[in-house]
Sequence to fold (1017 residues):
Amino acid sequence: MTDLYHPAPAFPIDQAALLASEHFGIEGELSPLDSERDQNFRLASSAGTWTFKIINASEPGLESAFQVALLTHLAAVAPDLSLPRLRKAASGTALATTLAASGERHSLRMVSWLPGRPLAESTRSPAVLNSLGQMLGRMDRALQGFIHPGALRALDWDVRRAGEAHARLAHVADAGDRAVLERFLDRFDKQVAPRLAMLRTQVIHNDANDWNVLVDPDRPDSVAGMIDFGDALHTVLIAEVAVASAYAILDQEDPIGAVAELAAGFHALYPLREEELDVLFDLIMARLVISVTLSAARASRVGDNPYLAISEAPAWRMLRRLDAMNPRFATAILRHACGFDAVPGATAIATWIDRNAKNMAPVVRPHPATLAKALVPYGDAANPMTVASAAADPEKASTWWDAHASETGVALGIGPWGEARSVYSGDMFKSRFIDGSRRDRHLGLDLFMPAGTKVHTPLAATVQSAEIEEEPLGYGGLVALLHEPEGCPAFVTLWGHLAHEVVARLKPGQKLAAGALVGEMGAHAQNGGWAPHLHLQISADTGLSARAILGVGEASYLGVWRELFPDAAALVGIPPETFTQTGRSRAEIVAARKATMLPNLSISYSEPIKFVRGDGVWLIDDRGRAYLDCFNNVCHLGHAHPHVVEAIARQAAKLNTNTRYLHDNIVAYAERLTATLPPELGVASFACSGSEANSLMLRMARTHTGREEAIVLDWAYHGTTQELIDLSPYKYKRKGGKGRKPHVFEAVIPDSYRAPADWPAEEHAKRFAASVAEQIDAMRREGRAPALFMAESIPSVAGQVFLPDGYLSEVYAMVRAAGGLCVADEVQVGFGRVGSHWWAFETQGVVPDIVTMGKPIGNAHPMAALVTTREVAASFNNGMEYFNTFGGNPVSCAAGLAVLDVIEQGDLRRNALEIGNYLIERFRGMQERHEAIGDVRGMGLFLGIELVADRRTKEPATVLAKKICDGARARGVLMGTEGPGDNVLKMRPPMIFTRANADHLLSVLEGTFEAVLAGKE
Ligand SMILES: Cc1ncc(COP(=O)(O)O)c(C=O)c1O
Fold:
């Protein structure tokens, strides 16, 4: 190789001019250029401007030949790039030779002069750095296929040889500086050098320092060309980016950001590989270390050489800055800039957590999703809590928060990921990456609850560390857990601000099952001096120690931190609605309803709820609180069931018409639906609401019998149209009702719980049926007879009343004997809710003449149906068409089919039976503890708890029922009250209700009963 210490050629300028004209035929004005080893001139002539090079005599011929071959290759394969082009000598070759007066032989070379201003004298904007990256990318792509024996040379400037700097350390006088180099070399030897052999290698320029890069003066964001291929060699490709970066970042405010730009530019034209980016930070340091140590060695050997020293001071400044950075974070920034995961696996981890969020054990109990939540005001610098925390006054901060939380009913305070916070005021929050910038973005998720609140791991884990961080505003008790779930790259969770007890309990290597205790939220004396809370953070990088995990980061790198330290909200199951609200506030909606909608519309709860999302058994409100829905039976399979949603969307996107055209869905649904019913019930018809189905039923019954008279049960509700209001004592007997119409006859509610005490239980059916017989008698006396008897198969509005065994057979026999039709209203209770059967009437061993259905039929898609016998259908066919614009359309039938699929495929009737029986048994246990529970009733997931002031008199405990219902709502569970005394707790949870859901309901009910009965609510 060239002897670095061999003196550069020193031809007088006139002699050089002679050589230029003699060998290359160019005459003009020569001006000397800086060069480390050779003698270079700018040569301005009438035949253009040139660079004339007299090469160091010590340069082996092989290297000169390599230079020529390299430039020749580039000229051939990348003619569009602005690079020096060789001028042939008179001899016909690119190299000429001459003999110096000293007797040394020198090669001579002439290349075209490139216009442009050196990057060293230009503004190093992000755009120009990106452009430099692109230039290098294009050039190196053009060099991919090039090789030459001269390229395989040993060069001190080869970053792979940074380890040789060990031998030059002695020339560095300052011990602190030496320590910087030693730390680097140690890492280089152990972690970088072993990986170099696996990287792509090729010939590269290897010296894109800012004097060799030319910027277009007219377009200062654009690199115009590259010069000086004197250091070109065959080495790792990534060294090209590393070397260019090492110079481009000097004295930059945000050096890693500058590298990121350069690397991204390169990557766009010549894609880099992850393993190359993983060593880039270290190779930049390697180049700087080579530079400063060579410089130090030369200084002590031959005295100062101004060319070598040119970048020395800034290089030292940069080395000290890079030394303070965590290389893993710097690498994460570079990987992110090139579109790779900031750390391998980051995307897979975030996706896995999102997909599995529902299966995590709750971090605090009850589950955080179910708690009333609000953001802790750390995002507001002026808030008293923020001010107190910034002033290290945790007691004052806690007092403010506790008062605020109890005033607003908030149980869980949330400190969101990514929040800009003014509380991080100490020196420890100065950025190590960006000069003059601070770290103020919170990278964990804070859960604020009282000190002592227990926190549990959402997933199985191995304890990585448990320690106490004593620094003020540190973490106090600090735990790191390693999670290795199946199908997901390993990740770490960091648990900060815990009570110190954790250190004695958890040991590294210890295994924790999902849901196991991690620790307790510490009081401020133990948690680093904060209002009690848990800082929970995910690290996708498992190689970071607990203390190295960055809890607070720079805003400008938030995109990187998001991948490296993903938001733990999904892991904890905090609904996104907690963080962002959309649409109008609750009060605004109430006001808008008042202004533009019927005042008759009621709103559930005195403090109305705004739900924004449904998910299975959960309804999520506008503030991210999930309520367990035990009330709404329409969402039979749970809210937004994906199979039904998909079926509706697919059909809606294809075709929606009406029953006047042929369509597969309509007949398929009629077949599937009738198949669930006894064979006599073989004719289906479709409508859009339960009321429409019941109205159609009325038309049929009247046509079939030629009569108007109807027998209904007291307190029944059958629909919202006037003719159905007339058949609904629940409506016509209450406020605004006009009383019973002459064609309507009421039988008593067959409520065994309220049957006269002297009725033997086995006679309840007969005795209650006598009330129907009385109505038929009353009609007969007036020369009338019933068109129909209609009852819900389990009267619901009447208070979840279960008909005594044999009741419907008694009644149906009487009604049929009088020529009337028997109608089962299954709008609430059908579709397998009772578990043992598809239809609740089946539990009575009867077959009605007409069954009407609605609510759960389309899992919230507006749809209803009526199924009847061939005989009734035939008599209804009197010439008048039945047409319902929307009823039975292909989309509705697709929804109906999907509902049947899910019930059948998910064996949901069995689930309803099992969970229902479990609940009934546990409710009975509660009945033993609470006198107020007069009766527990249920079949499958149709459930009622009747509350009484006195078990003997059975006086309805109406106020208590309301309090329990309100108390359950306050605890995040929805139910209703029903019955003439409004004293029956009514529950109809979705058919997918699990044992865990049931336990949640039970614990809330128990807690509510205890609080209400103790007079606390
Ligand atoms: C038993 C019963 N039948 C019929 C209806 C009327 O159904 P819709 O509101 O769909 O018209 C209801 C509604 O609550 C009902 O509970």
The first helix runs from residue 13 to 24. Residues 689-691, 694, 717-720, 792, 825, 827-828, 854 surround pyridoxal-5'-phosphate (CB under 6 Å). The first strand starts at residue 28 and ends at 33. DSSP finds 29 helices and 38 strands in the chain.
